[in-house]
């Protein structure tokens, strides 16, 4: 019995971050998302993103004070940053500048709008964005 209780408690604790993420996702609007073109395609499997190259970048982004979440699309060609509601323009510029040092290019105009709309449409549930290039 004790083992079952521990397993249930551990399972509930593991699901907590997912529940928070789903709750935050419902409040994300297009003006809180920035998208960057990135060269993070896997050299061994060019149809997917490179986990070993992207993981440190995504983890660093999520440590930034104004960043709520950071996502890499499946192909490894786009990073989306979801900004916290209270993030300011200076914070966003600093993070964008750091990404551009890593050979990222911020998208704007129609391509940005289409990519953000696609990203947000995949946010209804928990999982990776359903982007296409």
Topology:
Elements: H1 2-26, E1 33-37, H2 51-63, E2 67-72, E3 78-83, H3 89-101, E4 105-106, H4 109-121
Antiparallel strand pairs: 1-3, 1-4, 2-3
Can you walk through the features of this model?
The chain has 133 residues and is of the alpha+beta class. It has a single domain (2-121), classed as 2-Layer Sandwich (Alpha-Beta Plaits), CATH 3.30.70. Helix content is 48%, strand content 14%. The protein contains four helices and four strands; from the N terminus they run αβαββαβα. Strands 2-3-1-4 form a four-stranded antiparallel sheet, sandwiched between helices. A hairpin with a 5-residue loop joins strand 2 and strand 3 (78-83). The longest helix is centred in the N-terminal third of the chain and has 25 residues, at 2-26. The radius of gyration is 16 Å and the shape is globular. Residues 1-23 and 123-133 have low confidence and may be disordered.
Task: Based on the model shown, name its key terms.
133 residues; alpha+beta; Alpha-Beta Plaits; 4-stranded antiparallel beta sheet; 4 helices; 48% helix; globular; disordered N terminus
């Amino acid at each position: 019995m004790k083992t079952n209780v521990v397993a249930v408690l551990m399972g509930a604790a593991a699901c907590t971050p997912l529940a928070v993420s789903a709750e935050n996702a419902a409040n994300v609007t297009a003006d809180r998302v920035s998208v960057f073109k990135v060269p993070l395609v896997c050299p061994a499997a060019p149809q997917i993103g490179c986990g070993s190259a992207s993981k440190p970048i995504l983890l660093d982004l999520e440590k930034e004070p104004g960043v709520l979440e950071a996502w890499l699309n499946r192909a490894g060609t786009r990073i989306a940053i979801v900004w916290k509601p209270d993030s300011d323009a200076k914070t966003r510029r600093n993070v964008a500048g750091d990404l551009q040092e890593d050979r990222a290019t911020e998208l704007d105009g129609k391509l940005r709008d289409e990519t953000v709309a696609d990203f947000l449409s995949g946010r209804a549930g928990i999982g990776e964005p359903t982007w296409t290039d």
